[in-house]
Every structure is written in structure tokens, then in C-alpha cells.
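Here is an idea for our session: we take a single protein and study its fold together. Start from the sequence, derive the C-alpha cells from it, and show both lines together. Once you have written the record down, we can walk along the chain together:
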Amino acid sequence: MSKSAPPAPQAFEPAFIAGLKSIFEEKIVFNQVLGLKITSLAPDGVVGRIDMKPDLVGHYAYNRIHGGVISAGLDAMGGLAVMAAIGAKHLDEPPEQRLHRFAKLGTIDLRIDYLRPGIGSHFELRAQVLRLGSRVATTRMEFLGPDGQIMSAGAAAYIVS
């Protein structure tokens, strides 16, 4: 007996993507302060990016991203991954109704492992949901340098009810 592959996750409608980007990048002011932008939004995972500004002479070598920014960015991306998973779970609802489901989303546990110094011109942040329950979701996150090397890894739990 052969196993069949699981069905591919259904893509989101443009209205849902636009609404989620608006919430994440514009309405959550702290994400603006971090410079956190969504680059990929799918039911099975999300990707974001933070661009550093060069120093006064145009170099990035001495621009280190603070551990608090790494932690906050990974936490935000974990929350975004949960939003995407909830949105995918309720595809039978209109996009506007699904976007209102995120009002009570909150972090209940966060762990970050700092593996390398955060030096670079830009960083990629990835997150995926490991489990979406009726009350709690768990996620895994990664913070990657410009060369694609993992610099920090995280895991978090979020309240979803």
C-alpha cells in the first residue's frame, strides 16, 4: 500500500493577504519601528525581512542587530504564522471575518536561542505553526543572516481563543 501525499495548502485570497499585511505592517506600530516586512504569506509558513541601515560611512560591518529586536521580530513572525494558520483553518468564512479572529491572539511563552551575532545588511525571519489547537498554538521560528545561515532560533506558544 502506498501513502498518498497530503493535499497542498490552499492559497489565500488577495483580500485576506492585503488585510493581514495591513494589520501586521501598518497597524502594529512596533513592527514599523522594527522595519519588519512580510515577504511570503502562506497557510503552512510565513517569511519576513528586516533591512539594516548603513552606518555613517555606508558600511554594515559594525551594525549589530540587538537581541531584543531579534526576539521581538521572531515573536511577531510566530504570531503571524498563527494568524495564517487560523485563516487557512476557516477558509469557509469571508476574509474580513477571518481577520477579526486575531483580536485575542497573544504570546504566552517564548524561547529564543542566540546562535551567532546579528551582523549583516538584512535578515530573513521564518515561522511555521507546529500545532494549532482550539486554545493554544505552538510555533517554530528562525532568524537568518544575509548568507542564509541561521543566527537565532525560537519556539513560542500563543493563546488563540
Notes: The mean pLDDT is 90. Strands lie at 36-42, 45-51, 106-114, 122-132, 136-144, 150-159. The chain has four helices and six strands.
